[in-house]
Specification:
Layout lengths: L2 E5 L3 H12 L3 E5 L3 H10 L15 E3 L2 H4 L4 E4 L6 H8 L8 E4 L12 H8 L4 E6 L4 H4 L5 E7 L2 H11 L4 E6 L2 H23 L4 H21 L4 H4 L2 H12 L4 H10 L4 H8 L4 H16 L4 H11 L4 H9 L23
Helix pairs in contact: 4-5, 8-9, 8-11, 8-12, 8-14, 9-11, 12-13, 14-15, 15-16
Amino acid sequence: MAKVSVIGSGSYGVALAVLLHKNGHEVVLRSSTQEKAEQVKRERKISSLPDVILPPEIVVTNDLKKACSADLVVLAAASVHIRGLAHAMAPFVREGQILVNVAKGIEECTLKTLSEQIEEEIPQARTAVLSGPSHAEEVGRGIPTTCVVGAREKQTAETVQTIFMSDSFRVYTNPDVTGIEIGGALKNVIALAAGIADGLGYGDNTKAALITRGMAEISRLALAMGARIETLYGLSGIGDLVVTCASMHSRNRRAGILISQGCTAEEAMKQVNMVVEGVYSAKAGAALAERCGVVMPITKNVCAVLFEGKSPAECMRELMLRDKCVENASLAWPSCNLPGGML
């Protein structure tokens, strides 16, 4: 049994707290405010997960120092708050303590991944990232899924794997932290596009095309940043992308549907009533693509819809009528001569 803290009492934080408690660990759940902590402590659930009840053994607190005293600390805050949270945690984190980030995003002003931000603010810690197809609504109810944990050191990844593994939550390890984080952040942008397509009344063919070509552009960027293609074909890449584009549990897909119906990004986030990470990752993804010299047409068009007032239908037309190109530039044609006169 380990002492584990989950910092962030939103949907995913609550779901993971319940999972870790079922695994036999001593769990502390930290809320961002005293008022919210008291409400969660009293009601033992949150409105976004009405069917998930926090067992009485899980301690709910607003005390950050107390939360940081655990053997392992899970950061389950929204990506836009990770640097500030890490900065506040830094005085309380011990040398070599394991921090597990489960948020997904890229810092817009620096283009740094979340792990890079945590490592800058808390250099004494050992940082890991947990990612994969794991909507809180299902994790909290014990519905089986698989995820992947990445870390710089094998031992760190294996420790996190052991703590999280259960009969409903299988965890793999992977040393490619960059690939895991880029896949996790940018699949939210593609999910926005998938939601927009759904809202416009397009079909399954369109969804499959967006998922496939979305994975292609995410992979191009990740490889340019030093990631491995095997990671993008794994749980934090194609696995997370499929579920986020297809499920109504996906806040990014739901926001995309609302945007296609005329809502602004801000209005869509208010209606979804959760942080829509893809809105924040879209600009960062486009900026990274420009810096790395990578073509990302879906991401570019999502940005045009979100921030430039371009109509979703116009963006779809532009995507369909882009210049002709090969599907995979790494594949070469065999040498052969066609009969004369054939096109």
